[in-house]
Specification:
173 residues; mainly alpha; 6 helices
């Protein structure tokens, strides 16, 4: 082949190569957009199904935090005996039972939110135990001590509830 023939062959192939490259580029761009659109529609459909379940989980955890708030807990749970230790154990058992009842809700919320809820539960139990170490001898005095401790500082349940509310508000934005 001579140089003229190679140049002529190149002139014939050049438009086909350019057309093929442009077609490949636009086809690839189109398939990426279609994949993105399908993912968006799938996410939108799943969000429609999962959002009510997630909101219900947050509602249940808000109720849990309200129920273990020390001021409502000691009012709701009356001492069964005159033994201070029994009442302390009863309060802790109530918290643990509530927590175990709502344990499955963790799959619907973030790890940070779940950890804050667990910390609020553990801190509440710690407050009850530290009040139980005082020199009081009756369950009624223990109730007073627990309520006095909640008056001095913010309840762990309130702090956790504020975080839960923030996380729920982030679902809308």
């Amino acid at each position: 082949m001579s140089g003229d023939q190679i140049l002529q062959l190149f002139a014939y192939l050049m438009p086909a190569v350019v057309t093929g490259a442009v077609a490949f580029y636009f086809f690839r761009l189109h398939t990426r957009n279609e994949d993105g659109r399908r993912r968006f529609l799938l996410h939108k459909d799943s969000q429609k199904d999962t959002l009510p379940i997630r909101l219900q989980a947050y509602e249940r955890m808000a109720l849990f935090l309200e129920r273990i708030a020390l001021n409502s807990l000691v009012v709701r749970v009356a001492p069964a005996s005159k033994n201070k230790g029994d009442y302390e154990n009863l309060l802790i058992k109530q918290i643990e039972t509530e927590f175990e009842h709502n344990l499955s809700q963790q799959i619907y919320m973030s790890d940070a939110c779940w950890n804050i809820i667990k910390t609020a539960k553990n801190t509440t139990i710690q407050i009850i135990r530290s009040a139980g170490m005082s020199a009081t001898d009756s369950p009624d005095k223990l109730r007073e001590d627990i309520l006095n401790q909640t008056m001095e500082k913010e309840s762990p349940s309130n702090a956790a509830l504020a975080y839960v509310k923030k996380e729920v508000s982030d679902l809308w934005s």
